[in-house]
Structure formats: C-alpha cells, structure tokens
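Pilot study result, target chain (800 residues):
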Amino acid sequence: MENFTENKDFNKLINSSDFFVEYDVLSSLVQEGLKKTDYLEICRRLNRPPNRNELGMFGVMWSEHCCYRNSRPLLKNFPTSGSRILVGPGENAGVVDIGLGQKLVFKIESHNHPSAVEPFQGAATGVGGILRDIFTMGARPIALLNALRFGPLDDEKNISLLEGVVAGISHYGNCVGVPTVGGEVGFDSSYSGNPLVNAMALGLMETEEIVCSGASGIDFPVLYVGNTTGRDGMGGASFASSELSKTSIDDRPAVQVGDPFLEKGLIEACLEAFNTGYVIAAQDMGAAGLTCSCSEMASKGEVGIELNLDLVPAREKGMTAYEYLLSESQERMLFVVKPGSEKELSDLFTKWGLYVSVVGKVLKEKVVRVIHKGKIVANLPASSLADDTPIEEHILIHSLPEYLQEHWKWTEDLLPKSLNNGIINLKNNLFVTWNNILLNLLSTPSIASKNWIYTQYDYQVQSNTVVSPGEADAAVIRIRPQNDFKGQSNQDRGIASVVDCNDRWVYLDPQRGSMAAVAEAARNLSCVGAEPIAITNNLNFSSPEKAIGFWQLSMSCKGISNACKVLNTPVTGGNVSLYNDTKLSNNTVIPIHPTPVIGMVGIIENINNICTKSWQNSDDQIWMIGLPLEIKDDRISLSASSYLEYIHGLKTGRPPEIDLDLEKQVQSFLRQIIQKRIINSAHDLGDGGLAIAIAECCISSGFGANIMLSASDLRLDHLLFSEGGARVIISCSENQSLELKKDYKRLSLEESISFSLCHLGTVNNQNNLSVYQSNNLIIDANILDLKDVYKNAIYKKISK
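Predicted structure:
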C-alpha cells in the first residue's frame, strides 16, 4: 500500500470512488474481516492510512470475538453486581466471595469454529484457553465443565466431530491435571455444519490479591513467558467472527496447537510468580495473541506498551511482524513486573522449563508501539484497539418473526387422542405404547446418558470430586481450606456447578427459553443442596447482521437479565460467539439454534448433606415439589417438548411460561429440606418430563418405582411427558415424610406459597417401573431394559 505523506492528499483520495480498487485495499479488508467503513474510521483516527501490520491488528481487535461490536449494547443490561461479586465483566474471569476468606474464579468461553475444522485441537486449545483465564487471575484451576452441540449422529461427519472434540477435551484436561466434572451435550440438525464447543473452568484464588490485567508503572519491564511463538492460530479471532463455509477447511492454520504438559508447568510457575509480589499485571495470550494482550493491558491501565518482536521467543525462522502480532500460539503470557525482578522471575520460569524474555516496557504515551528488526512497524492508540472500538447499529424488529407466528399457533389439541395404552405416532401414523415411547425417548442422544463421553475424562484427579458425572443434577467439588480464617476451618464445604441450555426452547421463544436456562441451572444446583450465587454465560448465536439473528440475541439477553435479577445470580462475564451459520455450496445459509449456555456456581456449606438423583432405599416415599400434575396450567405444556419432537417429529409450539417467583419458592424449600436431611434424593423434571425423570432415578439407583397418577381430564401424554413448572422429584422414608409435610405446612402458614407437595408413589426393589392411573397400568417397564437403552444409546450410534 502506498505510503501517503500529506494528509490532505490522502483524505481527498480515500473519498474518491476508485480508491479501494486502485490501491487494492478491498482484498486486505476481506482478509482481515474489516469493512470499508472500518477502514475509513481507522484512517480518520490515525490521520493516515494503516500499514499492513496495523491493519491486521485492527482486524483482530475489531472482530466480534474481541470487541463485541454487535453485542456490547445488549450485554451492558446484565446485572453484574452483588454482595459476593468481587470482579465482574471486563477481566479475564469473574471472581466471587465464597466465605471463610476464599474466592472462586470462573468463566466460560467458546471454541466453535476451530473445532469445526480441526475438532481435536480446536477442543483441546479451548480447554487450555479457559484454564489460562483462571490462573491468570491468581487462582488454581479445580474443575472443568463443557457444553457441546453436534448434528444428528446418523451422519458420519457428526460422529467424527463428536469423537474428535471429546478426545481433545479429555487429552488436554487429563494431561494438565484438572478434572472434567460435568457438562451437557445436545444434538440437532442445525449444528451439523457448526458444532458448539463451550468450555467452563473454576479455580480457587491462591494469591493474597486478585491479579488484574491493567498495566502500570512507566518504564516498568514487560515480560513474555511460556511457550514459543509460531505461525499456528493465525487470525483466529477473525476466523471465529465469520460464517463457516465449504472452504473453511482451508482455515486450519487459524486453529492453534496446544501442549497441556507445558501449560501445567505454566500454571505452577505463574502462581509462584504471583506470590512473589513482583507481578504488577498479567494477561494471557488467547484470541489475537500479542496484539490483544499488549493493547488490552495498555488500555485498561491507561498507559502505553512498547513491544520488541526481536526479543520474542520464536519456534519458526523468518517470521514477519504481522505473523508475530497475529499468532495465537498457545500457553503464552504477558506480564508487567517490578524493575529489578527480571532475573529472579526469569530463573523461576526457566526452572519450570518455560521460555522467558523481557520484550518491552510500559510507556507514558497511550500507544501500542511495535518494533521489529530495529524499526517501528506499528504505532497505534491503545484505546482504539481495545476500548474505543466500533459498535454496530441494529434496528430491532418489534413484530414477532414469521417462523414463530406459525409455531405459536400450535396446541396440544392438534395431537391424536391420548389413550390408556398409547397414542398414534404422527411420524409414521402407527400406534405406539407408552412403554415404547419411554424407551424411545431414553434412547434419544440428547436425553440418553452421556457416559460414553464422560468416562473418557479424568474426573477424579485432584481427589476433590464429590459426585461422578451423571450421578446428580450438578457437579460438586470439595473446597479444601487454604488457611484458618478467624478461627474457622470448615473441612466440609463445597462448590456446585452446572451448564444448562434447552436450545429448542430458545429457538421457539428466545426470551422464555433463556429465562428457563437460568432457572433450570439454579434448580439443578438446588437439587444437590447448593445456593446459586452467580453465572457466566456463552451466547452462541447466528449472524447478528440478519434481523432475526439479532432479535434472537436481544430477546435472549433480556430473558437472562430478567431471570438473573429475580434469582439473584449476577453475571460475572462470559463469551459471545456469533456468526454460527453454515454456508452451503448453493449459498444457502443454515443458522444454528440460538444457544445461550448458562454456567452457574453455588455454595454448599456441608457436602455430607448433598442429594443425588438416585433412590436410596426400597419403600421410600416419592414426592413432587412444584405445580401439581393434574391441573391445567400454562406453566406446564407439551409445547416445545422432547416428546413432541422425538415421538411426533414436531419442533413447534411456544414454551411454557416461566414463573421465576415459583422457582425461588421451590428452590428455597428444596435447599432447606436437603440441609435438614429430610430427603434422600432430588431430581428436577427437565427434558422428557415426569416419566423421564422417574426413569432416570430408577436407572441411576437400580431400584424400581410404583407411581400412582390421580384421575384427571388432562391427556395422559401431558401427564407423563409435559415440561415446565419448576418441578422436582424427591424421595424420603416414611418417617422423613412426616417431617417433610410438617415443614411444608409450616412454610405455607408463614408465607404465601404457590407450589404444592404431591405424593406420587414408592420406591420398590422389584427392578420395575410401574405407572398407574385409576388402577389402569399405563407403563410397565423393566429397569434393566431402560438402563440398556439409556446407557448405550450414544455408543450404539457411534459404533454402527
């Protein structure tokens, strides 16, 4: 690109119609993911044209992945403060106070596009990146979770993606020594070309002070530590901010290559370095690599940074400044340290087998200045890169999109008549018994056990995992006291965590579906006895440049915000992943289901009192807390249900109303009776409704159950498979049942409550699930048969 020396000549030229063609700017903009208007704005801010290196830096920093140019106005409406919130959005991860002098750090992020073109490394480096966000704050990672989405497993390509992603997650997590303790996996045709890989990590602070990223100290040295810099991961941030297409396989160089063993050393070295007190600020090199780390550190500290690329450890010869600046090589960090500490810190990192080099210094002038081969190759205002970035203007549609207008017309009356022994299946017009429907739903990959996946993860490493994946509605990790806090030392405290999102519900009503995701996450934590305290979220959506895509994102953010305010679970940060669309060879664009994954954490004061979903004893009483089964209520419906989709082939209807006040009441009561040890198990009604929840309790425990449904005018399939209503299945002994009823009566006298306590039946040791209504046997299923289809469904799909 020609180097213009007179600004007036340049300003005149860029306003001419042939400028972009004559000077071949368009091809550069396309490569960097920038628009013409972006280029003009860059030129206006610099009062000159950017050079090739600078254009690349703007390309990655002004991408959706880094600056949230489409979503920032929506994210600012989230509730982000609370009594426990120590660090909210804006840092590498959120930090909450969990009492007794301990702090929990947690965050969720996506690695969707890289996993689509290179599933193993894409997923592995997604794990590595989220772990760095945690220990960069001064915390030791203690747990990993993940939320995954794939296309149907009838397609070999989707099977290959699933196998590669799971292998990548297990490889990195197992090698680095952090347990993968939970997650969720869903399957839908909308994800066939665009799988979702969201990784969440938790950590406990090991430093006295929280380590933040804002640089300070004029002329203080800037230290590079960790792995070498190569050409892998080039332009990864821009790649993550564009649609996938048939040619996306050519973007494999944009996928990073990780080394979990080196990251393990980096964790230990960083925590040791932070405890010396010499580190002023720290930032990991994730998306946009050196460009992002130095510009964000400078902008947050309201200072500048000078970076000398000649001093950066490189793994390849002949790298250009552009390649250094845009590389996303893994396991790298940037520090600002106290003068005079360089030798001691260098020795420390060398001891752990890591590269270390002083690569720059803090400047008073608020710029990012880059030197290569003795010359200044970039000189940009730090705020223009990391803070004062573009915001896209969108006109929010106020009318309901046409696709939802049709879906919301659906009612249960459009289904065939429900009979005592079954129903006509709309997919093939054949009569199907309730037994077969239950087996069919349990064998559906989205509902079936994910044991094929989680058995590949080391979930017991560090020896703090209290319940294995699949045993309870949330993961539970023991918190080991790090020091005596004012004479208190509780050895039995724990943290519960979960990731949740019913993408079908969000597709059919983004606001209700997103509210439901927050509510279900909180309910799952409450089912193990944990008090929900905060969330992180991963907003996976299609292109915001399409009116419907932006509307879905906007309504989803509104739903999350509403639910978090009512349930008192502030947002501490997260990730936005847009442009999750697949462009086919005929230029047809297939968007994913909008998928706002909610990662939530909660506190357990005594892990000895937690509940799992397994029945514990034969003859225990089975109860349900929540809305009663036998009444018609808009908060419980077959609309948008798994039964409707997987049995009748209908993905339609409007999800039930979300009653957040009901959620608060049910969950508070549930936590109280768990803490008092009044109940022996708890499991919420989610996908598949009552019948699936009861079957999962039976499968998990090996005990059977006798369920008695009262006479009702409602359809049988509604009673068995409807969803919604903040409902939880619990079990307890006959003596405990007396205490349960007393507590419920006491609560109903003390305050106005809107939920009921319904007796459903008893646990049996006959290995059989029997469901009756008015002495009619509706379901009569052998537990071993249920267990076989539930446990082996995914394995059978993969091994065909």
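One observation from the pilot: Residues 156-176 form the longest helix (21 residues). A full batch analysis is planned for the follow-on phase.
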